[in-house]
Amino acid sequence: MSLTSKLTSLLMQAALWLAAFISVFPFYWMIAGATNTANDITGGKFTLGSNLIPNITKFFELVDVPRIFFNSFFVAIAGTFFTLAISSLAGYGFEIFRSKTRDRVFGGLLLMLSVPFAAMMIPLFVMFSAAGIMNTYLAIILPGVASIFMIFYFRQNTKAFPSELRDAARMDGLKEWQIFIKIYIPVMRSTYAAAMIILFMTNWNAYLWPLIVLQTNEMKTIQLVVASLATAYTPDYGLIMVANVLATLPTILVFFLLQRRFVEGMLGGVK
Amino acid sequence: MSGLKLTGLRKSYGAHQVIKGVDLVVEPKEFVVFVGPSGCGKSTLLRMIAGLEEISGGDLVIGGVRMNEVDASKRGIAMVFQSYALYPHMTVRENMGFALKYAGESAENIARRVDDAAKILELHKLMDRKPRDLSGGQRQRVAIGRAIVRHPDVFLFDEPLSNLDAELRVQMRIEIARLHKELQSTIIYVTHDQVEAMTLADKIVVLREGLIEQTGTPLTLYDDPDNQFVAGFIGSPRMNFLPAIVQGGALVLPEYDGQIIPMPPVATALVQDAEVTVGIRPEHFKAGGSAALDVTIEIIEHLGGESFAYARQGKANVLTIATNSGRHWASGQRIKAEFDPASVLLFAPDGARIR
Is residue A12 part of a domain? Predict the structure, then answer.
């Protein structure tokens, strides 16, 4: 190996180590912070401490944890379920059924991707207020169920769905909706798994829109609670880190459970 | 078993017509093969019979009942697809019994019929496997099994062997022939493979650009084609075509330095200087024939049992000569390609056969 290629390899490794550090260190700091007092953290302590149990106890005293987690899980699971149902159905329909206006309608939908959510917040707020659904689970879930990105994702993946399977199912006597449920969904399960992870994380981590539509403490999700802990006059960072760890666990769990299917789905696999 | 009657069957996509009026009768228990070049409409016609494509015009009658608007699952038809189309998330047993389940059959009836089909196709050891755990040949057998369990009036096969390797293709071809004999079923089979068409069919339907060119038994099409297209399409290697001019009751071949060959026996009186096309099958070149062409071999292929020589004179079109006495032939060798003039076919400039 020449000196130049050795040097290039060394520089590349250094860059990768730096990138890995930037990715992993905040995560480690969060875990270490959960075991330390606020003073230790602000004092610059990065090692594990012994204050985990007091931090957890304090968190459970201050926050109605079961209620908050129920809210978060309900919003994330229901949001994921309805978005998957509606977006996959739309993506399947756009790809399978031909019409003269199909591509124009789809183009229009894609164009809407360029409209930022911030621009839609006020009209949505006014609409939801008029509909009387503010401070409800429905208000958090509804704006995201027809996700244009997810419709696009499902349409692209449906291109890999063999048309002969649909023909065979039609010959076997299945109606169109039965083909979708009995054949399409099981065949495309990797695609669904990848979408499920993305949607669960998006819904679980949602902050801005829930902050706008949720008005009472008993409706708050974990992300809003974490944020409210940080707005105290003297924030207790140990407490905040415990809340962060608890808020992160479900997404990690979902990712590891569906990891294999996530990779398959991202590669567009029909298994 | 039911027969089929297609009357003026048409299919259009907007202004583009792909099936332009097909009339065909398929007798009960008949094995009919649709052949034709890519894009001729053979698969579309099959899908129209299956109910997977809407019929734009004409009538489709199966077993005496008009089926144009009847749902695919209620036509008494089962189809075997090119890519097998097995449901990947189901076992072999589930795949085979799926249609029966949706037809409302009892569990015992489904199990009995699936087992019967498995026995016929020797699938019993594979019943609990998923399609991904099967070889190509096994998958194809399952696809056929799935069709058999439905006890259909008509089987449709859409190029079922084209995904298999050469050896498996031969095996499956024999298996399909055996099944037809055993089940005594009406079969419509689409292929572009000459050998499959010639060996399996009771009747071959040659299609071109959405129309039937000729219908007949394999040997009728081979021996007595109606036109140059059918003559060229049926038979492998394909028939040789040479331009010729009628002069003095014989045929002059301009590409062969004006060489003259005798006129084959035709009833039509051909006028002096009429332009015709001479068709000679590669296997009709035989030593001892009374006519001959002087050619130079460009490429020779020895297959063991027979040899194919690709030869020509000057800049004439290459002739294919099939012979089982050409082992000593070599590239560059000049030979006399002898043939019997009586075996030659003549075609008019519009491609119609001159009889």
Answer: no
